[in-house]
Amino acid sequence: MNQYWIAVIGTSAIAFALKYSGHSVPEKWLSHPKIQKVNALIPIALLSALVAVQTFTEKSKLMIDHRLLGLSVAILALLLKAPFPVVVISAAVSSALLYNYNI
Amino acid sequence: MSKVNSATLRDSLSVSLTVGAYGVAFGAAAVANGFSVLQSCLLSLLTFSGASQFAVVGVLGAGGTALSGIATASLLGIRNGLYGVIMAPRLKVKGFKRVVAAQVTIDESTGVALGQEVRSPEAMRQGFWLTGFGVFIFWNLFTLAGALGAQAMGDIRAWGLDSAVPAAFLGLVWPRLKTNSDRALAIGCAVFAIAMTPILPAGLPIIATAFIAVAVGLRK
User: Which of A9, A82, B26, B109 has the largest count of CB atoms under 10 Å?
Assistant: First the structure.
């Protein structure tokens, strides 16, 4: 079984276990303010790291290329309060233009 | 289930459709990062948690191992457990119904449900089930569409898909950046992950930032 299948099965099994355990444990276990605080910060850390790694690296090497333009356009779109699909599509279009035509 | 409150139905459906449509971005991202169409669809059916799904495809796409992908996705899935804690005493379901409730316990179903609580406990429960099933149906249909579309593209860079994926992550994290310390954490973690990429094995620079979040969260 390759890494991709292991990832699909493992992620799904743990995702369900987390959801189900929430429905089954006593409320007081997880309602501690520190746990709530850490839980709010973890997505910020992981998602920001993913943005950076997916934009500036390729196969463990640092790289600046057309993706930087895509990310810049996405930031601009978000600053202009554009909805999610506009953010994603404008990043894709600008990046593809630079990649295909080197304009 | 008694008669459905029309405002609850409207809230649930609009959230289901909008969020479900993001499934296109996920399906495309999964295929762009090397997952098959079947694997992409299984992630949406079984994992059914947007941020976790994007994370696992992002980590493996960056060359990370299955273990670091699973770990990153699971850390993002912890909040669904917390939603379960909130929803369990409100839904009061057992057995198979609890299994189904758990699977559709996500940001949106919990959010809509709690938003309906001012109307009535009945509207709250209806909001949870309608949004949970609604997002589930649309998210899976759109995932299939996105995965098939990306598969037909060939060179994903020519279509900008390699930028669409980080843009999608950015769109997910953006609404969470409410204070200056949130923004500082985001930038710090981004810089850390880039700086560690040439040094640590792939996938680890991403998961390592979770420790930064824990350290920051426990200090305050």
Answer: B109
- Written as one string, the DSSP assignment of chain A is --HHHHHHHHHHHHHHHHHHHHHHS-HHHH--HHHHHHHHHHHHHHHHHHHHHHHHEETTEE--SHHHHHHHHHHHHHHTT--HHHHHHHHHHHHHHHHHH--
A vs B, Cβ pairs < 8 A, gives 311
pLDDT tens-place string over residues A4-17: 999 999 999 999 99
Biggest alpha carbon–alpha carbon distance for chain B: 59
Which pLDDT tens digit goes with each residue over B131-165? 999 999 999 999 999 999 988 887 778 888 889 88
Inter-chain touch A18–B74, beta carbons under 8 Å: yes
A37 CB neighbours in chain B (<8 A) are 217-218, 220
Mean pLDDT across A61-85: 94
Tokens of B39: 């694997």
Q: What letter represents residue B168's amino acid? A: A
User: Within an 8 Å CB–CB cutoff, is residue B38 touching chain A?
Assistant: no
Which candidate from B52, B62, B169 shows the least CB-CB separation from A11? B52
**Strand-strand pairing, A57-58 and A61-62:** antiparallel
Cβ contact B117:B124 at 8 Å:
yes
Domain ranges of chain B: 6-174, 177-220
Contact B140/A at CB under 8 A: no
Given a cut of 70, whether residue B2 has pLDDT beyond it is no
Place of tokens 């992620």: A11
Beta bridge partners of A57: A62
* Predicted pLDDT at B140: 97
Q: Do the Cβ atoms of B161 and A92 come within 8 Å? A: yes
Question: Among A30-34, A41-45, B51-55, which is the least confidently predicted range?
Answer: A30-34
Residue B83: pLDDT band with limits 50, 70, 90: confident
Residues of A in contact with B173 (CB under 8 A): 43-44, 47-48, 51
